[in-house]
Amino acid sequence: MKASQNSSNTVRPANLEDIARKAGVSRSTVSRVINNEPYVSERTRAKVQAVIEAEGFSPNPAARMLVTQRTRVIGVVIPHTLLVTFQDPYYYPTLLQGVSEITHARDYATLLWWGQSRDEEERFTQRLLRQNRLMDGLILASATSNDPLIEKLVDLGTPFVMVERPARFQDRISYVSVDNVQAAQNAVSHLLSLGRKRIGTITGALDNVDGQDRLVGYRNALEMAGVPYDPALVAEGRFTHQSGIVGARKLIRENVDAIFAANDITAIGAIQAIKEAGLRVPEDIAVIGFDDLPSSVQITPQLTTVRQPIQQKGITATSLLLDLIEGKIEGPQHILLPTQLIIRQSCGTITF
Question: Is it the case that residue 84 has pLDDT exceeding 50?
Answer without folding.
Answer: yes
